[in-house]
Design a protein that fits this description.
alpha/beta, 14 helices, 18% strand
């Protein structure tokens, strides 16, 4: 195992780097020069890691403030954000102070949103501890919380000062969570980097070995895909929308499940659906469409959802962020690594595609 650090640049108006390696917590203070106070947000299971980050900050002369938030999607609520703002206010946080989010995608989403709103924007650093967080949530500057109407409907574009993808944090990650994170990696393979698909197909077991070279390569390739896209389109004016491949149905599943499903599991089903929809619309060849199910199933990920859930799923999709008025819009493929949009598909076509993947 190499101890080298890979640095992946994310461009735009506020460029930063994603560092991939092991034992990276010592990099946090250098990303926040001049910060006198630094709030470290974390969920209860990650108290030990958050304390380690806080100790590095303290050794560098900053005063850390530990803020424990509810785990997973339960923490992505406006009430939780409001409590964080109250804590920052009580501690006297100013514009030169900063935040660090230690945890999965929910914690880094929340941390970025709290930072975006406090004094109209202060610095923050993401320390994702899940594979999903490393390749998706922590990279790109999209922050937010969920509401009763749907997922991530309230948020802000607020890039971090840096992202530390410390691979050592994956060593204790439950296998199901590691595999779930790979759904976002596979998505990147279909929209931009087919080598990802080749690596998974060649050795699915190696793909879920957190200490292995294959998993690291998959992570770095997925981060590069996202970095390239968001560097050109931070605010989702056009190109960035391709990163939502599979997410229209995925977010609907999460809402119907009241966020009890892992995000990656929902993305896996949504990705299979997107491939099926593109084939039925005459946009994608059958072999590539079928490859969606094969690659994701090889990782032990779900590829179907109950047939009787369709009415609720359709209703949830109609409030998706990509919808325009009453017209649904889906990211589809016109071929491998050729993402495009399908606008206003008929309800009949949508239902036909769902019937093919339904259990």
């Amino acid at each position: 195992m190499t101890d080298e650090v890979t640095r992946i640049a994310v461009g735009g108006d506020r460029p930063y780097e994603v560092l991939v390696g092991r034992d990276l917590f010592g990099e946090v203070p250098g990303l926040l020069p001049g910060a006198g106070r630094v709030a470290v947000l974390h969920a209860p299971p990650l108290t030990e890691l958050a304390d380690a980050v806080a100790e590095r900050l303290r050794a560098a002369g900053a005063t850390p403030l530990s803020i424990e938030v509810p785990d997973a999607e339960a923490g992505k609520r406006i009430e939780v954000a409001a409590d964080c703002w109250d804590r920052l206010g009580a501690a006297g946080f100013t514009r030169t102070d900063a935040l660090v989010g230690v945890g999965g995608g929910a914690v880094t989403d929340l941390t970025g949103f709290v930072a975006a709103c406090w004094l109209r924007g202060v610095r923050w650093v993401a320390v994702p501890t899940s594979l999903l967080g490393m390749v998706d949530a922590a990279v790109g500057g999209k922050t937010g919380v969920n509401t009763a109407a749907g997922k991530n409907l309230v948020g802000a574009f607020h890039p971090p000062a840096g992202v530390l993808a410390d691979l050592a944090t994956l060593d204790s990650l439950p296998p199901a969570d590691l595999a779930a994170g790979l759904a976002e990696v596979v998505k990147c393979g279909f929209i931009a980097d087919p080598v990802i698909l080749d690596l998974v197909e060649r050795d699915p077991a190696a793909a879920v070995d957190p200490a292995g070279a294959v998993t690291r390569e998959l992570i770095e390739r997925a981060i590069r895909v996202k970095a390239d896209v968001v560097s050109a389109d931070l605010r989702e004016a056009g190109q960035r929308e391709v990163l939502n491949y599979g997410h229209t149905l995925a977010h609907a599943i999460e809402k119907v499940e009241d966020y009890r499903w892992r995000h990656g599991h929902a993305v896996a089903v949504g990705t299979v659906y997107a491939g099926t929809l593109a084939r039925l619309a005459g946009r994608l060849d059958p072999a590539t469409a079928g490859r969606h199910r094969d690659v994701l199933a090889a990782l032990g990920l779900p590829t179907s959802y109950p047939a009787d859930a369709w009415p609720d799923l359709l209703a949830a999709m109609r409030v998706d962020k990509k919808a325009r008025g009453s017209r649904l819009r889906f990211v589809v493929l016109d071929g491998l690594a050729r993402p495009a949009l399908l606008e206003g598909p008929s309800d009949e076509l949508l239902h036909e595609a769902y019937r093919e993947i339904a259990s």
